[in-house]
Amino acid sequence: MAHELRTPLATVNLMGDVLRTLARNDVPEGKRKKIDELSTRLQNLVRSMNRQIDTQISNAQLLRLPREKSPVMAGDLVSEVINNYPYRSTRERDCVRLHIQEDFCFVASRPLFMQVVANLLKNALHSLASASSAPNPGDLRIDVGIHRGKGRIAVSDDGVGIPTEQQSRIFEPFFSTQAGAGNGLGLTFCKNVVESVNGTISVHSVPTMGAVFMVDLPLQKDAH
Questions:
Q1: Cβ contact 159:130 at 8 Å
Q2: Average pLDDT of the chain?
Q3: Model confidence at 123: pLDDT above 80
Q4: How far is Cα 45 from Cα 13, in angstroms, rounded to an integer?
Q5: Measured distance CA(123)–CA(162) in Å, rounded
Q6: How much is the pTM?
Q7: CB 143 within 8 Å of CB 153
Q8: Between β-strands 211-217 and 150-157, what pairing exists: parallel, antiparallel or unpaired?
Q9: What does the alpha-carbon distance between residue 37 and residue 32 come to, in Å, rounded to a whole number?
Q10: CB 125, CB 82: distance < 8 Å
Q11: Residue 175 pLDDT > 80, yes or no?
Q12: How far apart are CA 49 and CA 108, in angstroms?
């Protein structure tokens, strides 16, 4: 269905380009600006429709992913994500440090939470890559422990941080601090998955000094 919708939208978008070209070459000056404005509005509508399609695809993918819940050990899950992540360089891999202060068990879909941790890891690495200096060992830390009666997975980086005025919006669909990168759905996905097991995800950041994302989860009682 997405393909069937995108095909005519692509045609409409191309028509906008054609109109703009015609306006520049074959239309009197008095009408050129008006046609150019209409072309821009047309292409903005196409962009808006494509975003709506992306939203529906994201929601559908979330529903299609494995949702069977089972006991998950946080330390094992995070270790697996770190070991299997497709790092771009050895230096990038070596900047990651895992500290298990106290392992814990929670009930969730393991594949979904592996994707959550991978998304947070990817964002942290991107933040480090945007910093002025190359990453050093320990610039990205993942801590597993217990905090105020809940299990916590915290992903911290010493990257560029998040502007204060943007921190309240980063979990919104399509909002991204990474200009030109990603579709702004990664953190929305994380929030949906974490909240599906009655957990919470939050962020603390000081601009230019890095960020920490905290995932707090209900503990599985009587876990062995």
A1: yes
A2: 83
A3: yes
A4: 9
A5: 11
A6: 0.68
A7: yes
A8: antiparallel
A9: 9
A10: no
A11: no
A12: 33
Query: CB–CB of 78/155 below 8 Å?
Result: no
Quick one: pLDDT band at residue 117, thresholds 50, 70, 90? very high
Tracing tokens 């995070």 back to the chain, one arrives at 78
C-alpha dist (Å) from residue 126 to 20, 77, 81, 159, 211: 36, 22, 17, 8, 12
For residue 180, the surrounding DSSP H or E stretch is none
The alpha carbon of 29 is separated from its chain's Cα centroid by a whole number of angstroms, namely 45
At 180 the pLDDT is: 44
CB neighbourhood size of 131 (10 A): 16
- β pairing state of 200-205 and 211-217: antiparallel
Q: Which has the closest alpha carbon to 71: 123, 108, 103? A: 108
List all residues 6 or more positions away from 32 whose beta carbon is below 8 Å from its beta carbon: 23, 24
Compute the distance between CA of residue 55 and CA of residue 136 in angstroms, rounded to an integer: 37
Question: In the structure, what pLDDT confidence band is assigned to residue 61 with cuts at 50, 70 and 90?
Answer: low
Max Cα separation, the chain?
Answer: 78
Q: Considering only CA atoms, which of 216, 213, 194, 217 is closest in space to residue 205?
A: 213
Q: Which amino acid is at 105?
A: C
